[in-house]
């Protein structure tokens, strides 16, 4: 399917990453299960949250080390699917499924205090969208894609920034909330607005923008990131990415931009719904309990 039969099991599934992902999943189930009593103020984690964590972990693996990752080197539309899964779907699912008491155990330490300014909501809002937009400047995108180490670290930084970005929408530690409900609504709209220019330029470009999906030589260099052996052999056998692409390059590029924007807006609508529901519950709680601490349960 889509030419994946030409790649080995190792190319498709990255066994080391697969084992690591499974180990993280097992570790999570132990931390929220039998090891929970070792954490201060820990509470039981509902099964639904544990399932959501494992789903998010599987999605991240598929996008960054599994078949979707490989397809992301063959078609721009799958590249944008990788971006959407990694930075707009997985982070909020992790924040939902990892309990607040674990986040407090992890970050309530003196070591992290100098880094607190980096978690300012405005910085988190602009930084993710800036990194995404700059990354998709064609010359920068192609350069990062053919430099394996830089490519890997850039994706790690993007994921950390995405977690910080979503943290201010769904903060799992009530006493660490820094954005009030009305501010969260503006924050979510800001996220959608700031990403729009990059998507619009990609969707409405008059010609293919990215050499890595159109120039066979650049494509062969980029394939070093996810294919074992000499990528030049793939180039000799298949004559470039067009062999695998089901669409014309410009159509594939447009589909990628549309897919990215659609998924982001879907997640934004979901986030708005969560914010409004929590806002409503908070107000009801205040009405029912006048002495309710307004600062304690904003989210």
What is the residue-mean pLDDT, rounded to a whole number?
90
The helix content, as a percent range, equals 55-70%
- Helix-strand string: HHHHHHHHHHHHH
What gyration radius follows from the Cα positions, in whole Å? Answer: 21 Å
How large is the share of residues in beta strands?
under 5%
- Report, as a whole number of angstroms, the end-to-end distance: 44 Å
**Largest β sheet strand count, sense and barrel closure:** none
**Alpha-beta content class:** mainly alpha
Instruction: Give the count of helical stretches.
Output: 13
Contiguous low-pLDDT stretches (5 residues minimum) are: 294-299
Query: What's the shape?
Result: globular
Number of DSSP-assigned strands: 0
Quick structural gist:
The chain has 299 residues and is an all-alpha fold. The protein has 13 helices and no strands. 31% of the residues are buried.
Question: Could you explain the architecture of this structure?
Answer:
The chain is mainly alpha-helical. 66% of the residues lie in helices and 0% in strands. The protein is built from 13 helices and no strands. Helix 2 packs antiparallel against helix 3 and helix 11 packs antiparallel against helix 12. The longest helix has 40 residues. The radius of gyration is 21 Å and the shape is globular. The C terminus is likely disordered.
Write the layout of secondary structure elements.
Layout: H1 9-13, H2 15-31, H3 47-64, H4 67-71, H5 76-97, H6 100-107, H7 121-135, H8 138-145, H9 148-167, H10 181-204, H11 216-222, H12 231-238, H13 249-288
